[in-house]
Amino acid sequence: MMPSAEYLDRRIETADLKDILQLQHAKLAKQLDYLFARSLFYQDKFRAAGLGRRNYRRLRDLTLFPFTTKEELRDSQATHPPLGKHIACELGDVIRVHSSTGTTGKPSFVGVTRRDARIWTRLTARSFYTQGLRKSDIVIHAAGLTLFVAGLSSKDAIESVGALFVPIGTGASEKALMAIQLLKANSMHCTPSYATYFAEWVRREANLDPAELGLKKLFCGAEPGAGIPAVRAKLQQDWGARVTEGLGNADMAPIIFSECPEQSGMHFNGADYVLAEIIDPESGESLPVEKGATGELVYTSLERECVPLLRFRTRDRVTVLNTSCSCGRTGFKLRCIGRTDDMLILLGVNVFPSAVRDVVSSFHPQTTGQIQIVLDEPGPKVAPPLKVVAEHSASVSNLVELKREIEKKIKATLTVSASVTLVASGTLPRYEMKGQLVRRSYENPGSV
Ligand SMILES: [Zn+2]
């Protein structure tokens, strides 16, 4: 089927909320039948919670069911290798595994059946299409290709739209530059950290202006950053390209939310395969999805064979920006603020490292946007002031004034006290995959 000009799946992307809820209810009822019949993991969980299949009658009954956490999935995999007690299909029906890129512990594998993979391809393609990917595009994939959930899935999705996929991978800036030049690529898929790193690399190593390479679309994801106004402005200026971002989850689907060219938050693109809730992370209460709602994103699979998950806590902290858009998509729009794991608490105030970077980046061009928060003791509680190291550009003459201004703005914006140390441009480490905004000095006291 040929897509219409604006949407890959018009029927679902522009559906009324009422129709979506009806569809989700029908699919969830079937998914629960499947869990009760096939998932040993959920059979145990439901028994422990005293829940039977009869407890689900309408969509809002979902909130009666317990959450699933990443720790449970890890334990399940450890006690029931290779893929865990939570896989609900035959091992012989699994055609591929991915793993989450979590920084803690062993890799956590996620399997897909042929049908799961087909759904992932469609959902991921829909998300790229929402971001403006079209058949005529040539896309440099400068992100992970192997176990990374948005590697091979992006290949399948981008190819399915008919665009040209160029598998570069990570840590290969020379190859990426050559491919952009020789193939006249117009798009790139990467993390915002890499887009920042690569722009500097092109200037330094190739003595070229990245904005003159001809990239017009940057599809970013895998970490917050591209949606932060100051970071986005700098990336767009560096590359002369439109920057949009996507958000997914290794255990659920590669890209579930993505931004349309309006660039005003990521649309929920997956309502026919995933049910998204926003909860209060402390009380666990499900919040109404309306403008301004802030909380943790929770996913429920609606049509999954290998790893169907019910109320899976993502630890992604999000804010709903809007529930309508001039592009005509009806999926609500959000921005991801950061991971609950990254959150710091100063005198009871929650602070995400990405928000600190946002404030510092807003001083561009006086700052480069590179920052590091230094923790002398394990978080999340931090004794004020928050220690922030930030790079200034060579042209700044009054460093004392700049330091004072940044500290003032952090206080005004984030309501916490910070102590800013300014260092010369190029001092802080660059990351080719995901950025590290926090340095734990207590882990390696000698290092800088
Ligand atoms: Zn839109």
Nutshell version of this structure?
The chain has 448 residues and is an alpha/beta fold. The protein has helices at residues 10-13, 17-38, 40-49, 70-79, 114-130, 152-161, 173-183, 192-205, 229-239, 353-361, 399-414; strands spanning 94-99, 109-113, 138-141, 164-167, 187-190, 217-220, 242-249, 253-259, 266-268, 274-279, 286-287, 294-301, 312-322, 333-339, 344-346, 349-351, 367-375, 386-392, 418-424, 438-440.
Small molecules in complex? zinc ion
* Total helical segments: 11
Pairing-aware structural class of the strands and helices?
alpha/beta
Percentage of residues in strands: 15-25%
* Biggest sheet overview: 12 strands, mixed
Low-confidence stretches: none
Beginning-to-end CA distance, first to last residue: 56 Å
- Mean pLDDT level: 93
Q: What does it look like?
A:
- The chain has 448 residues and is an alpha/beta fold.
- The chain has helices spanning 10-13, 17-38, 40-49, 70-79, 114-130, 152-161, 173-183, 192-205, 229-239, 353-361, 399-414; strands at residues 94-99, 109-113, 138-141, 164-167, 187-190, 217-220, 242-249, 253-259, 266-268, 274-279, 286-287, 294-301, 312-322, 333-339, 344-346, 349-351, 367-375, 386-392, 418-424, 438-440.
- 30% of the residues lie in helices and 25% in strands.
- It is globular and about 70 Å long.
- Zinc ion binds at residues 260, 262, 267, 325, 327, 329.
- The site of zinc ion has 6 residues, from loops.
